[in-house]
Amino acid sequence: MSRRSLIATSALGLAAPALVAGATFADRPASAAAGATQRITIYAEALPGGLFGYGLAPGAATVPGPILEIWEGDTLEITLVNTTTQRLSIHPHGVDYSTDSDGSPLNASYNNPGETRTYVWRSREMIAATGRRFMPGSAGYWHYHDHAMGTDHGTAGIARGLYGALIVRRRGDILPERQFTVVFNDMMINNRMAPDTPMFEANLGQRVEWIAIGHGGTFHTFHLHAHRWADNRTGMLEGPADPSLVIDNKDLNPGSSFGFQVLAGEGVGPGVWMYHCHVQSHSDGGMVGLFLVRNADGSMPAGAEEAIHRFQGHSHSTAAHQAHGD
Ligand SMILES: [Cu+2]
């Protein structure tokens, strides 16, 4: 495990691992040949407030779990340690796996309370097909989640925090300086409500990567103020003729995920910008958080402290505190 992944975890286990490169990624150069296997151990743990989380070390579980990253073509072997009294699993989207790594009770692929089990996720590169076409590889902004707690679909595990981002990179992809995982889960963001939602931070001009994931029982739309991205695999255009639609708002429905990179504050400057669900009743209900773009030297821009104070005085504060039992 890398040092950078260790600093992502908080003592309380409730903070999103926002300012860290992917947990499995930092030690693996892109120049290495495809087909390598990375082995990690993930601990599923009970957290305060009735939550559960995944973490890369004992006592380090977070909601969302750590960002897992591999290069396209590589394999990730996960030893999942279930420290809880609940049946649970880990189930990925976007990669290849055998039935015994499915993470579903259907395939008897889960951890009983206290049990340790290994899951293997494989990825592959794009391959040529006939007719000048290509079969897709695994590269993308994906996610993982429990599929066994509460119901055979992991409904209780997902509701209580067992989810995280999975990124499969294509060789040549540009790596970000900051990463933010945003999970719209029922009426919460990362199982929090405003003003307790994550405040993500970057300095002006830094390359930041957003990974957006939907869960729960209702549809959402993800909106980021003052920034836009291409609606394709990376969020970036491949050239002036790239036909990708450029957007600043995108559907984020249960089970779906997407990601993109932007340069923080590019063209608009530093400041406090909102990200939120654009279903009005959801944003009014607390599905909103802050993206603090600091000055390039890391200092606070004019007006930022005042904006943060305004947000913290948000009318949802009472409801949010009740939801967290504090
Ligand atoms: Cu919503």
Describe the protein.
The structure is a single chain. With 326 residues, this protein is mainly beta. Helix content is 10%, strand content 33%. It has 5 helices and 21 strands. The protein has helices at residues 3-6, 155-159, 280-284, 304-312, 317-324, and strands at residues 37-46, 52-55, 68-71, 75-82, 91-92, 116-122, 127-128, 134-135, 140-145, 163-169, 178-185, 188-189, 199-203, 207-215, 221-224, 229-230, 246-247, 249-251, 257-263, 271-277, 288-294. The strands form 6 sheets. Strands 13-21-20-15-18 form a 5-stranded mixed β-sheet. Strands 2-1-4-6 form a 4-stranded mixed β-sheet, with no helix packed on it. Strand 1 and strand 2 (52-55) form a beta hairpin. The structure holds copper (II) ion. Copper (II) ion (CU) binds next to loops.
Question: What's the structural blueprint in terms of helices and strands?
Answer:
Blueprint: H1 3-6, E1 37-46, E2 52-55, E3 68-71, E4 75-82, E5 91-92, E6 116-122, E7 127-128, E8 134-135, E9 140-145, H2 155-159, E10 163-169, E11 178-185, E12 188-189, E13 199-203, E14 207-215, E15 221-224, E16 229-230, E17 246-247, E18 249-251, E19 257-263, E20 271-277, H3 280-284, E21 288-294, H4 304-312, H5 317-324
Parallel strand pairs: 1-4, 3-10, 11-14, 13-21
Antiparallel strand pairs: 1-2, 4-6, 5-9, 7-8, 9-10, 11-12, 14-19, 15-18, 15-20, 16-17, 20-21
The structure holds copper (II) ion.
Copper (II) ion (CU) binds at residues 184, 220, 277, 279, 282, 287.
